[in-house]
Amino acid sequence: MNNSDNMDKDIGNNVTRKRSTTLMAIGLLIIGALLSIQASWLPAKAWLSQQLIQRSWQQSMLAQENTANVNNKQIAIKPWPWADTFPIAELVFQRLDKSLVVLNGGDPTTLAFSAGAIAPFNQANSTKPFVVAGHRDSHFSFLKEVAMKDIISLTDAQGRDQLYQVERIDIVDATSGQLPLRADESNLVLITCYPFEGLGNDASERYVITASAL
């Protein structure tokens, strides 16, 4: 093999290495772009779902006002067509300047989008407690800032307002199956996992806020 052949071979090897390096760089750029899109999509998805939930709540309230509803039944308007839930109330935490639309149900899909009222305690302004659960790392993360005697306003789907005052804050062992809840008291009960800094869904304690009607 002469020097010319060796030179051609070296040039070919260099071209192949450069091509491989270029393809690898392009591949890494594509992977990085996909990861960036995924990371930015998650908060965008969360923001969009909250906007749709708030919109469906406002539509529900408006429909209730414009309809002669003699039986006082709620008009359920889903935040998106395939949703298995709908908004049934809004909570306002006055001192914290925080509001939250409550969805109907306590299943994992519902709680992924907002706090949810758990059946059979999902009837606002009734003689039973109104029990709302939410995740400690998202929609109910602010519960750690709620203090004794705080005022919470609840608006139901008929537009009726009820004020509550925080009277108890308990940390309960979830494995015992016991909650500070009486079925004959019209309290507002808020539940999330504890501690707030924990990770995952294996928490064995619950943070329970009980507020009495004023």
Which fold does the CATH topology refer to? Sortase, Chain: A
CATH architecture: Beta Barrel
Percent helix, as a range, is: 25-40%
Strand content: 25-35%
Biggest pleated-sheet summary: 8 strands, mixed, barrel
CATH homologous superfamily classification: Sortase
Structural classification: alpha+beta
Would you give an account of this structure?
With about 210 residues, this protein is of the alpha+beta class. It has helices at about 5-65, 110; strands at about 85-95, 100-105, 115, 130-135, 150-155, 160-175, 190-195, 205-214. Strand 1 and strand 2 (about 100-105) form a beta hairpin. The protein starts with a helix and ends with a strand.
Please render the helix and strand layout as text.
Layout: H1 3-66, E1 87-93, E2 98-104, H2 108-111, E3 116-117, E4 130-133, E5 151-156, E6 161-173, E7 188-194, E8 205-213
Parallel strand pairs: 2-3, 4-7
Antiparallel strand pairs: 1-2, 1-5, 3-4, 5-6, 6-8, 7-8
